[in-house]
Structure formats: structure tokens, C-alpha cells
Write a structure and sequence with these properties.
It is built from 25 helices and four strands. It is mostly helical.
Length: 404
């Protein structure tokens, strides 16, 4: 056989090279198909595509809750770390300003004549009495919040709603956590493709029938995607072989991935802002309102008793109950004006990132694999099949352009 650099020889050598390009391109495309497009493009439900992860974000969010946040973090434990004194200190200045406005508005609405007739000194005494009582009210409210937090804050609702609303966030979790594995998948596709292309070249040398190249391309596209996914997650436990330690790439980086993952959860998902938002506007908001009502009513009872020399008995029962109702509603509605001043303190106090990181590091390989893989594992076949079909298509193109 003539192995000179003839056109036939170059055509033959192009088989493994094109297989390498097929391996790289199919792996590259498989990665892109996992994350993009974020929204469905095409004609639903079958003619089009949406990234596997954004498409399954509801299911993936629920898995994140069950496998990670539900087992490794407890809202009861997080809430127990909040010190009412430090919380009061963080937002006291702004809370005083908000309370003065609420007192003015409530009294002007519910007892306008009495409030207008009250001298400035009398109003200042009311303000001073309320402000002096802030630590006591906050302390009681925080303690009740801690005891009832699981009814007020639904951690599953928080995580699922945020990830469903923000598909970019769930993409970020996967992209950053697997930042070292995904480039490997791309590069490995080239080298595996080159390796698998050599047998195809040998077979073609001795059996140059039309279906060899499409079949070889199909096998290359399938195997490069399949092997790349296996190498990332298999073997789960370290195996010693010829002096080397072999373990799935993702699992080998458990400590590093735990840190990256925990930082994202702490800074983007399980924040004080999001926890308070779900408490005020989520399914447990009625419980939060009841808690505020209880302590506002209790405080008003004390304030009215203190201010009897000024108010006397002239308010009337109807106005009195309306005062309580209005004050409760305003404290609830205006909470976003003073609670943000406590976010910096509460984020530090809860220590979500550090705790989650340490607990993730302690997971078994099987449990740690469950952090990122399970939700899209059922659809991995789509990526592998796409790679196989693209490889077969490339084989037909090579057959037509080079050998026909």
C-alpha cells in the first residue's frame, strides 16, 4: 500500500482529525445545550430547545432544598443566632424615624383633636416613651419570631421561588461550581475523538464502504460525550491504580466546590433580604402579621396607660381599636423602611456560607454528587444522543466532501 503523501493518504489521515473535531464540537455543543438558551426557542412543545438546566429549574430547585438546604441548614438554627440587642442597635436610628411618622399618622387619623391639642412637650414624651421601649419590643418580637420561624418562613418556598424567577442564578450555581470540569469536557472531546478516529481509519483502509464513516462518526459523538460525563462523576470513591489516585473530577474537588457553592447560596439565595421578603409576602405572611399585631397591641396598651394624663378617656373604643389596627398595618407595611438597616448584621450573624461549606465538605461522595447531578441526570441521554447524531452527520459530510 502506498503511504506517500498523496491525496488518498491525506484523505485517510483526515478521518481521525475530523473525528477529533467532531468530538470537540459535540462536547462543546452539549455543554451549551445544558445552559442555553435560558428561555425556550422554537415551537412548543417539541420543535425547539431550552437549556436543560433552565428548563428543569423548578425540579432542580426542589432537589436543592431536599438534598442540601433541607438537610444541611435549619432556619430555626439560623434564627437562633440573631441577638435582639445587636439587631436593635443596627436599625434603631431608622426605626425611631419611622415610628415617629407612624405615631403622627395614626394619631392624626384616629384621634385628630386630642393629638392636635397635645402640646409639643406632651408629644415628645410619647415619642420618648415609645423609643425607650424599642429594645423591649424588638426583643419580644425576635424571640417569638424564632419560635415560630418555620411557620413564617418556608425555606422551600424561598429557594424554589427565587430559582424559578431567576434561571440565570441556577445557571450561575452550576457554571461556577463546575468551572474546572466543563473546560475539560470540551478538551477531552478532541482527544477522545482523535483516539476513536484511528480505528475508523483502519477499518476504512480495508473496508471502504459508504456506511463506515457515518457509523464511526456516530460512535465517536456518542462515546466522547458519554466518557466525559463519566469521568466527571466516576468513580465516586478514590481508587489507587499504578501509583495514581483516580476519582471523579467533580468529587475530587469537593472542598473547593463546597466553598464556591456555599458562597453563591449565601450571597444570592439565602440572604436576609430574601428571608424577610418571604416572611412578609410569602405563604407565612399572615403569621408574621399576627406576630406584629400581638406586640404592637401590647405596646399600645402600655403607651396609652402612660399617656392617660394627656389623653384621658376621650379617645373612644372605636377609635382606640382603629388605632391598634392602623398601627399594626403601618408597622407591617413600613417594615421595608427599617428592616434593611439590619441586613448587614443578620447576614454576618447567621454565617450561612461558612456553615454550609463545612457541612458539604463532610458529605459522602454519593451525597455530594447529589448536589448538582440528579436533576439533569435523567436528561443526559439527550446530550449523548445529540452528540451521536451530530457525529453521524459529520461522517456523511466527510464521506461526501473527501471520498466521493
Amino acid at each position: 500500500m502506498d503511504f506517500g503523501f498523496s491525496f488518498a493518504t491525506l484523505s485517510l489521515l483526515s478521518i481521525p482529525l475530523i473525528s477529533a473535531i467532531v468530538g470537540w464540537s459535540t462536547n462543546f455543543l452539549a455543554l451549551k445545550m445544558m445552559f442555553y438558551p435560558i428561555e425556550f426557542i422554537g415551537i412548543k412543545p417539541f420543535f425547539g430547545w431550552q437549556g436543560l438546566i433552565p428548563a428543569k429549574r423548578q425540579e432542580m430547585a426542589e432537589i436543592e432544598v431536599e438534598l442540601v438546604l433541607g438537610k444541611l441548614l435549619s432556619v430555626q438554627e439560623l434564627a437562633s443566632r440573631i441577638d435582639p440587642k445587636e439587631l436593635t442597635k443596627a436599625m434603631q436610628r431608622r426605626l425611631k424615624q419611622v415610628l415617629r411618622r407612624i405615631v403622627n399618622d395614626v394619631m392624626s387619623d384616629c384621634a385628630p383633636q386630642l393629638w392636635a391639642a397635645l402640646p409639643v412637650h406632651g408629644k415628645n414624651l410619647v415619642y420618648a416613651r415609645i423609643e425607650a421601649d424599642i429594645p423591649n419590643v424588638v426583643n419580644n418580637m425576635v424571640n417569638d419570631f424564632k419560635h415560630n420561624i418555620e411557620e413564617i418562613v418556608d425555606i422551600k418556598e424561598l429557594v424554589v421561588s427565587k430559582l424559578v424567577e431567576s434561571p440565570e442564578l441556577i445557571n450561575e450555581i452550576f457554571l461556577k461550581s463546575g468551572a474546572k470540569e466543563y473546560p475539560f469536557i470540551e478538551r477531552s472531546g478532541f482527544w477522545f475523538g482523535l483516539l476513536f478516529g484511528l480505528p475508523t481509519m483502519v477499518v476504512w483502509m480495508y473496508l471502504p464502504v459508504w456506511w463506515i464513516l457515518p457509523l464511526g462518526g456516530l460512535i465517536v459523538g456518542y462515546l466522547t460525550n458519554w466518557i466525559a460525563l463519566k469521568i466527571i462523576f466516576e468513580p465516586k470513591h478514590p481508587i489507587k491504580f499504578l501509583g495514581f489516585t483516580i476519582q471523579g473530577m467533580f468529587l475530587k474537588r469537593q472542598n473547593e466546590v463546597s466553598r464556591v457553592y456555599s458562597d453563591i447560596i449565601e450571597s444570592k439565595l439565602m440572604t436576609s433580604e430574601n428571608i424577610i421578603e418571604i416572611a412578609l409576602h410569602g405563604s407565612g405572611s399572615d403569621k408574621m402579621l399576627e406576630l406584629i399585631e400581638l406586640h404592637v397591641n401590647d405596646a399600645i396598651e402600655r403607651y396609652i396607660a402612660f399617656a392617660q394624663p394627656y389623653f384621658g378617656l376621650g379617645i373612644g373604643s372605636e377609635s382606640y381599636f382603629r388605632m391598634k389596627e392602623t398601627a399594626t398595618r403601618r408597622m407591617f407595611e413600613d417594615s421595608e423602611k427599617y428592616l434593611p438597616y439590619a441586613f448587614e448584621y443578620t447576614n454576618k450573624a447567621m454565617r450561612i456560607g461558612d456553615d454550609l461549606c463545612e457541612r458539604m465538605k463532610a458529605l459522602s461522595p454519593e451525597e455530594f454528587e447529589g448536589v448538582l447531578r440528579p436533576a439533569y441526570e435523567a436528561d443526559e441521554w439527550k446530550l449523548i444522543l445529540t452528540g451521536a447524531l451530530l457525529g453521524m452527520g459529520a461522517g456523511f459530510m466527510q464521506l461526501y466532501l473527501v471520498f466521493m
